[in-house]
Each structure stands twice: as structure tokens, then as C-alpha cells.
Automatic annotation (TrEMBL):
Residues 33-63 are annotated as: Disordered. It comes from Punica granatum (Pomegranate). GTP binds at residues 373, 388, 414-416. This is Tyrosine specific protein phosphatases domain-containing protein. One of its GO terms (molecular function) is mRNA guanylyltransferase activity. SUPFAM superfamilies: (Phosphotyrosine protein) phosphatases II, DNA ligase/mRNA capping enzyme, catalytic domain. Keywords: GTP-binding, Nucleotide-binding. InterPro entries: Dual-sp_phosphatase_cat-dom, mRNA_cap_enz_bifunc, mRNA_cap_enzyme_adenylation, mRNA_Capping_Enz/RNA_Phosphat, Prot-tyrosine_phosphatase-like, Tyr_Pase_dom. Residues 177-246 form the Tyrosine specific protein phosphatases domain. One of its GO terms (biological process) is 7-methylguanosine mRNA capping. Residues 38-55 have a biased composition (Basic and acidic residues). The active site is at residue 368.
Amino acid sequence: MDLNTMPEEEEETYDRHVQEYTAAIDHTESAVNIANRESFERSKRPMKERSEERATSTSQRADQFYQTTRRFKSYDTAKLPSGWLDCPSFGQEIDCFIPSKVPLGEAFNDSIPPGKRYSFKQVIHQHSVLGRKLGLVIDLTNTTCYYSVSDLNKEGIKHVKISCVGRDAVPNSAQVNQFVYEVSLFLSRQNQTKKYILVHRTHGRNRTGYMIIHYLMRSTSMSVTQAIKKFADARPPGIYKPDYIDALYTYYHEKKPRIIICPPTPEWKRSSDLDLNCEAMADEDDDGNHAAPILDNCETEAQMTNDDVLGEEVPRDLVDRYRYFCYQTLKLNTQPRGAKQFPGSHPVSLDRENLQLLRQRYYYATWKADGTRYMMLITIDGCYLIDRKFNIQVDTSLAVKGVREKTHHYTLLDDEMVIDTMPDSGTQERRYLIYDLMALNQVSVVERPFHERWKMIEKEVIEPRITERDNIYQSWNPYYRYDLELSGRKGFWLLPTVDKLLKDFIPKLSHEADGLIFQVLYLMV
């Protein structure tokens, strides 16, 4: 028997197993082949069916992720300004203004639940839906950590920063004047397309309302009460800090009506934001600076002197504009930038050499008051004092208030400020004595004879104010304090009456006088 020869049955069994194994291998696909086949099958399906499949798959994954993480998601709202989360985002438009709380950038997203976010992306979109196009944002906060200005620059929106210190202090006069100037400049450069101004502080109530009301008071004919109500209707409940309301009445020389009641603190102000008297505490967006206490615009009990600095700071661009107007009106050479020349007339001492001038011309005589020389420029935005150094300050105690269409605009007066001591009470009052008119509503009158200009003071300035005073009391604003407009015309006498001026008039003055002034009337023929 040959041991190397296999039985026939065993050989058949082996061949059968080999064939079955080979067939199994032929029907097995690799992972690569499976992926290619599925991709080919998907490409044959309609596009809509494939999109729905992807959307369903993505939605399912998102739902699974949300279901997994929502139980663990928390928002650290302590990083947000107090009361910001529940404070309504913005109010109704007020002419060109939109009062708003501060929009917060994406850095605060982890602290704000969905549906509560309010960034400039939402601001621009929401107002676009309402048909409003923003052109200017005025930021009154005292910090720069809330959002990036680059978000506005990309949209072509101008951003102006006016840092207002908090701690219960109203914005100071320089900040108010800057606000009014920026708004006026923006509106003057508008094209036919109306663009809006978004004004915000932390919550868009007290300081925001204070600034907007200042502009309304200077640009329209309304009382403080009407302006406060207009803001409150657009941004309920309006200004709710009494110091701000009192400051507005003081600033614009109006008596606060007894019916004016400060609204209560809004509900969105948490209890932790209230002091022991249940009044709103200071905002928390400051950089640590503490404001000075609120000061009234009325004269204090401190002793007045001629060295007191009067008026409030105005923006530099506005100073340059008014200086240029003075040079043009008085036909003076424009000075190089930085050089300052007082545009008013310069007196000549009456020594022996100049006595002959009294024989060559006719003169009026008046007293030389011991006061401070100023020129006053009256515009629809306020009254500006120009001192001997050509510094320009706005002085609200000299407000020329009335119907806007009749208000002086670019009227230039020459005068002096004196301090009267009342003989009965001994109290002091400032008086602004006008003795010359240089320009009337942008028209120069310096080439007219003095006696004509002097009469124009009474006709164009004094008498209209008396008429407007009666109109103010009897109609739209019975609370306006006209007595705080401290101005009047200075008297002049012919030379033959100088003796009476010296002996009878000057001794009765309520302020000091230290000589005489002779004003030329016209040349003798």
C-alpha cells in the first residue's frame, strides 16, 4: 500500500471545502467599497431628498447635544451691569433720537441667556426692520469695556464718546455743550436720507434723558415740563432721579411746578440696586472716579468778585467758528491759529494830548463801571461771553429764550458785567450792561453811526424781550424766570449834562464807578 496516495473520498471532501471558502471570499466587500457604493447611490437620489436627510441628521445631532448640555449650562449674570438684563432695550424715537440701554458685545454672550442678548447687530437689524437707519451713536458711559467700536465702523456709523461720571452726579456743562454740538453738527451734515442718533448710558434713562432734553430745550420752543414729559412718553418711566429733574429746571431758569412728581424706580431695578430709602443707587459702569456734588446754576452765597470766571466750557471747534465770525463781522484780519486778539473796541486815555479830540467830534458820556469787559454773542443755541483774552464761554444766566423763529442768531453785543449790591437787602446780583451793537442776526452794523446802533439795542434786543416775556408768562411757559436774564442797556448823556451825571447819577449806583467814558457820536463838520 502506497502511503503517499490519499483516498478518493478524502480528496473530494478537500476540494469541496476549498470551493466553498473561495465563494465566501468572492461575496465579501471591503469598507472602502461599501463607502464608494453608498456615495454612488446617494448621488443618484434627488437633490431635495439629500438636503432633507442632511438637515434631519444635523438637527438630530443638535437636539442630542442640547439635551445633553442644557442641564449643565448656566449664565453668570453677575458680570452684567445691574438691572441691564430686564431693562427694555430701547424706547420710541424722539425727533432724531433713539434712547437705548448700552448694547453689549459678544464677550458678554456667556452671561446672557438666549433671547436676552442685545448687541449692535441686533440694534442695527431691529431698527432696519422699523425703517430707521442709524448714523450716529453717542456713548455716555464712563467705560470702554461694553463693546467694540469697530462693529459700528464697519456699518459706517459714527461713534462719539462723552464720558459721564456716575455716582448720582448730573452731566456737567462741558459735557452737555459737547452733546448739543455733536448733534447739531451731525444734523447739519445730513443728506436727504434721514439718519437717527442712538443715545445710550447703562440703562438709557437718567443721563440719556438729561442730554436729550437739553437739546430739545435749545432747539425747540417748549418748557422743561413739556420736554420731560416727551422723553418719559418715549422711554417710560423717563427720568426717575429727582436731582436730574431739579437740575433741568434750575439750568433753564424755570420754577418747578408742584404737580411734577418724580416717577418711582422701575421694577427691573433689582432690590439690591436700591438704597435704604428704596431709591436707585448709582450705576456701576464707572472706572472708579467719583463725581463732584451737583451744583445749581443760581448764584451761591459766596461773595461775588469781578475776577470770577463766568460761563461754561464749549467745544474747541465751536470756539474757532465764533472767533472767525467776530473777525469777519468787525472786519479784522484773521489771526493765525493760536493767536488771540480781543475783537472789541480799545479805549484811549484822555490825557492832555487827546483833549483836542473833544473839540473835533461830538461825544456822549457815560460812567466807567468797576466791572468786567465782555462781548456777548447771542445764538439760537445760547449766549456766549467773550473776554479780553478772546476766551469764549457759554453763560446760561444770560439765556435769550422765546419763540425760536424770533430768537437772535449771531447777534454780537459789547458790554460789561457789574455786581450790584441791593441797598435794602445787601444781596449781590450780576448785571450785564449793553452799550454797543456790533452785529444783528449775522449782519454787521459797525459802520453805522453810534447813535443808530445804540437805539437799535433798545428796539432790536430790549423791547422784543419785554414782549416775549409777557408771551412766556401768559402762554406756553408761565414758570420761566425772566428775572434771571441779567441784561440791560447802559445810559449815555450829552456832554453838557456831565456835571449832573457826576453829582446826581453816579452816587446812586448800586455798583462801583471809577470815572467817565466818552463815546464818539459823529465828526463835526
